[in-house]
Amino acid sequence: MLLKNGDRDVLQFSIEDCYLKVINNQFLPYELKDYVKTTDFSSPDKIKESLKYIEVLKDFLASRTLTLTRDNAKAILRSVGLPQSSRITERIRITLACNALNMTDNFWVTEEEDKRKFSDVCLRNNHLGDVAYQISILSKCISATLEEMEPDLMTDGMFPKTWHRSENGIELWKTDKSSGNINTVEEQKVSDLLEFTNVKHVKYKSFQKDGRLLVKCSCLASDRYSIINAFSLNDWCIHTGRELLHVLEKDFIVDFAKMCVIDYIIANTDRHLGNINFFVDNETNMVVGMTPLFDHNQALVADEIGADIDKLVYDATNLTMLETAKKYYSKSSLEIEIEKFPKECQQRWEQIIELQNMGYKR
Fold first, then answer.
1. In angstroms, what CA-CA distances link 206 with 21, 123, 165, 186?
2. pTM score, two decimals?
3. Three-state secondary structure call for residue 154
4. CB-side exposure of 120: number of CA atoms within 13 Å?
C-alpha cells in the first residue's frame, strides 16, 4: 500500500509483511518524519529497529480513527457494521477501510494500482450527508454507508460532533449531554469573551436544532494548510532530539504565551496537547504557526461548580496553571477588556497583575 500526502507518494508499506520503504521523508506525517526508515532485516539490531518503525506506523494509522470514549462512537461504528473494539488491529482496519482520510490534513492510504487523485477522495471536497448528523448528534440507530460516515469516523474528542457542509463551507457541529447544556453554553460564552482580547480564536455560533443546543465553527484546514496537534509535533521533537516546550517558546512565543495566560483567566482545564494545534504548509510540509485557539467547552465550568484551578497542572508547561500564567504574561502582549469578563476571571487577572507588579520571577 501507499501512504500519500496529497498526490505525493511518501511511504510504501505492508503491515502483514512488516515492510516499509520511505519514498519522501520531507512530506511524511510528523509522527514519522525524520524517524522511520526503510526496513532492513539483515542483522538482529536492524530487525529490532525495523520492527520499531512498523509499530510507529501502526500507532499513526490507529490514531486516525475515533476512539470508543467519543460520545456516540458505538452508534457510529454500528451504523456501518464496523467492530466496536479498541484493539489496535481493529482500529487500523477501520482506518484503512476509510483510506486513512482526515478532514484536517492531506494524508491518505491507497493501493498502489489506485489511479485516483487526492481531489477525488478529499473529505473537504466531497459530499457530506445528513446521516452523520442523525447518528453522531442525535444518536439514532440507523444504517449508513462507510462513505457517509467517513468524516465522523476520523473525528476525535469526547463530545457528540459531526462535520456539516453549509453554504459557508465545512463546519464542525458540536453539542453535549450535560445538565443545561453547560459545555455548549460555555463554548459560546468564551467565544464571545475572546472578542474582547487580541487572542486569535475560533469563532463559535450557537443554534437550536431538533430541540438541542449546538455550536458550530468553520473548519480550519484548507487545500493549502493542514492541521496537526502538539501530540504529533511532540513525537517529531522526541525523534529529532528536541523538546516541545523549547520549540513552542522559540518559534511561537507570543501566541503560545497568550494561550497560557488566557487559559488561566477563563479556567480552561482541557488544554491538553491534542487541543494545541498548528498550521502546516502543504507545499512544504513545514509548521508555519499556531492555529487560533479552539475547543473551550470545558472553560469556565470550574467557576460554575466552585473549583479552584490554581494548582492544576498545565500540560504544555508542566507547571500549575497559575505558575504558567505568571511566567508567560510578560511575553504575551495580551490585550484584554477585563471588565467584560465574569468576576472570577477578573480576580485571576488581578492576581497575575499583582504578582507581576511585585516583581514575580520564576
1. 47, 24, 16, 10
2. 0.90
3. coil
4. 7
